[in-house]
Sequence to fold (157 residues):
Amino acid sequence: MASNQPAQEVIAWLTSNGWTPDRDLGERAAELVEVRVRDAERQGVALSPSPAATRVVNAYGLLRLPHPKAAETWLMKPTLGYEGDAALIQELATGLGVSLFPVGYEESERGLILVDETGRWFHLHHTGGYFLGVNDYDAFSRFLSGVNAPDAEDYFV
Fold:
């Protein structure tokens, strides 16, 4: 399923939700990332955005991405989270052996959407961590097709 090029259905879905191929939030993305970094520091945890996570915020930040057939929506806003989430992100990152940074969340159950330093996507849900895709397009394609996300533990080092 993984591809460096999006399927036509992914492009159509993203476009219908406000995305364009040249979308760049610029300084606004940097502000969103900084808010999240400061919140993690307030929680006593250092979260550092990787270039991959920053790129995702630049390209998709502030988009609301509803599933066309299910009651699930991804809100691509890294500033949303909950008290204590930074420690949970750090714990998952330790298991994966890579840094993670939040790029959004899933609205219905408030699970965090995270991107690692290699560009892989993960979901930190109250039931655990899950793998969403090897890159943006893979994660979006899996989301649209309803593929069950495997446990993040399958990717632990």
Observations:
- The longest strand covers residues 100-106.
